[in-house]
Design a protein that fits this description.
With 191 residues, this protein is mostly helical. The protein has seven helices and two strands.
Length: 191
């Protein structure tokens, strides 16, 4: 499905894929479709309220995909962020979700791959150090105690250049799991 998908060159194509993904998510998770419509509008507002939102909508659709990925707004107010919905599609490999997610991923990858290829306006942190803040189930913590292990992630792995930003991600994830999923997973920082 991914190889057949194209990166969106126009914002309405990207938003159509986002809408399809949210509808597929509702069907899979047995959520009210009105929540998909409401979350779609919330995401649109988040993109448009950014200072460069209108210019990005017209000229840099891949930046719109990045804004959607990094949006802190939650499905239904207390559900997953858009990045969580997108990663669910990739993690579960559910054809209905993956088919809808593929154009979003292609558009986001147009930005990420260009950066890897040496896009001149991107500078990486000294020493190439990135940070990740998240929660990890207790039963998986021991895996991370030994450095040098390889890890495959079935989705996008969010990292930050600044430790403070990663700490914000960890706190946000911890609050979500404490309040919504009622799990007591610890917040963890990776460097």
């Amino acid at each position: 499905l991914y190889t057949m998908a194209l990166a969106a060159e126009k914002s309405h194509v990207l938003f159509s894929a986002v809408d399809s993904l949210l509808v597929a998510y509702c069907a899979r998770e047995k959520k009210d479709m009105q929540n998909a419509n409401a979350f779609f509008r919330v995401l649109q507002k988040a993109v448009l309220s950014h200072g460069a939102g209108a210019d990005e909508m017209v000229n840099r659709v891949e930046l719109v995909a990045e804004r959607l990925w990094t949006a802190a707004e939650r499905f239904g107010g207390d559900g997953p962020e858009f990045c969580g919905v997108l990663n669910l599609a990739l993690r579960t490999d559910d054809p209905a979700l993956v088919g809808a997610a593929a154009p979003v991923c292609r558009t986001l990858n147009a930005l990420l791959i260009a950066r890897r290829a040496g896009d001149g306006d991107v500078t990486f942190p000294a020493g190439g150090v990135l940070y990740r803040g998240c929660v990890v189930p207790d039963e998986h913590l021991r895996f991370y105690e030994s450095p040098g292990k390889m890890l495959a992630v079935p989705g996008y792995l969010a990292t930050a250049f600044k430790e403070e930003k990663a700490q914000e991600f960890a706190q946000r994830a911890w609050r979500f799991h404490q309040q919504v999923t009622k799990t007591k997973w610890p917040a963890v920082m990776f460097k």
